[in-house]
Amino acid sequence: MNEEQANTSQSMAQTGRQATDLLKALWRWGKYLVPAVLAFIGGLFLIMLFVGMMAGGEDANCYVDNGGGSGDTTIIGGDWKDKNSSTHKAMQYAADQFKDNLHMSGDNIAAALAIGLRESGFNPLSVNPSGAVKGIWQWGAGGINGNRYGSTADTVEGQVALAITELRTTHMATLNHMHDASLQASLDAWDVYFEGLSLSDPQRKVEQTAATAKEVKSVFNLNFAGSTSTGAGNDGGNALDGANSDTSDCGTSSGTASGLPVKGQYNITGGYPNYAGATGSEHYGTDFQTVGAQETGEASNVYSVSDGTVVAKSSDSIGGNWVVIKNTDGTYAYYGHAPTQDAIVVNQGQTLKKGQHISHQGQTGLATGVHVHFAVNKKQIAFAPRSDGLISPGDYLTALPKQAIPGNGLVAPAGPFKTKESDDAGQ
């Protein structure tokens, strides 16, 4: 081997040793570097994902779709401006119902639909778990917001019917303030009297909601006047469908009230039109409490004060579980605070006799102590303070003791009293 070949061999051997040393070093450090690099890449990915979620969620609604609606509910989706989308069809259904049954104006309806979009995307399955609210207009479904939703079906039809019932009864102030109202005034009325928000509440998103309402009015061609009414006429397809106002089969009773909603020994615990009669907080009925009554048993029974027909049966956060009977004299009698819906033992459309057992005393809704809240309206199903047609139970119930009637149109807490046998006829 000459000198040049020897040098070449030595150089190759040295290179081989260097390569081997490098591989050993890489192997030695690799078991530390590879996990570190992978961890770095993974952490970077998570950070990017979090930032993306935050950016994408800034303008998102605070509700989530529980995907568990009952009945034949169609999953709501699609651009509400697209006539073929299920959201558009749901809104059209609501618009038609509000127009046909409540005679709301185009501005009234546009306001209601726009607020439905703001609250839930007009999705009957939407739920906000943190506030225990649900549905198109995010009704309280238990917890801090009460339970206006009750057993309402998670469908567009069920929730629109609930809205119509409330607008005619517990939330009729909404319709009163929508009468001849502009688009903005209609938005204000719905937010304040139906949603329970103050005019300055940031949840209203005033400018955004007003802009949406203008679009809604245009898309659905809501260019017509209205004549809002909380009366319970026989217009077809309304929330009180099934209520038979034909009382021709109600016997020979004159229909005038001469009975009481309770039997036996009782106290009047809340007066009219204020709790103390002439003073105190507003109270749009009279509270009757049978002595010793619990929420079950005969002592808690509630009786119809007249022949009539059941025209509404529902629940809300103020009246609890309640039933309304249209008496044969044309008045509407309200019986509130039953323990449960099942405790109301009559059903919508059923004809009744004076003195018939209809419900039980309870304390659901805004109530203290077991009792029945009785109210009467000579014109319509509307029982909020100062509702048109409200009359004093003292003027209507001829069997009410004079000691409980300190003046014209007044009822004051008093008792105990005992119903007369003649008052209990038929019970």
TrEMBL record:
InterPro entries recorded: Cell_wall_metabolism_enzyme, Dup_hybrid_motif, M23ase_b-sheet_dom, Phage_lysozyme2
Entry-linked SUPFAM superfamilies: Duplicated hybrid motif
Record field: compositional bias (Low complexity): 237-256
Top-level enzyme category: hydrolase
Enzyme Commission number(s) of this protein: 3.4.24.75
Keyword check for Membrane: yes
Domain annotation M23ase beta-sheet core: ranges: 282-384
Keyword Transmembrane helix found: yes
GO MF terms, alphabetically ordered: metalloendopeptidase activity
Domain Phage tail lysozyme stretches: 90-219
Region (Disordered): 231-256
Record field: transmembrane: 32-55
A Pfam family assignment: Phage_lysozyme2
Sorted UniProt keywords: Hydrolase, Membrane, Transmembrane, Transmembrane helix
PANTHER family xrefs: MUREIN HYDROLASE ACTIVATOR ENVC (PTHR21666:SF270), PEPTIDASE-RELATED (PTHR21666)
Protein name: LytM protein
Source organism of the structure: Weissella cibaria
Gene name as annotated: lytM
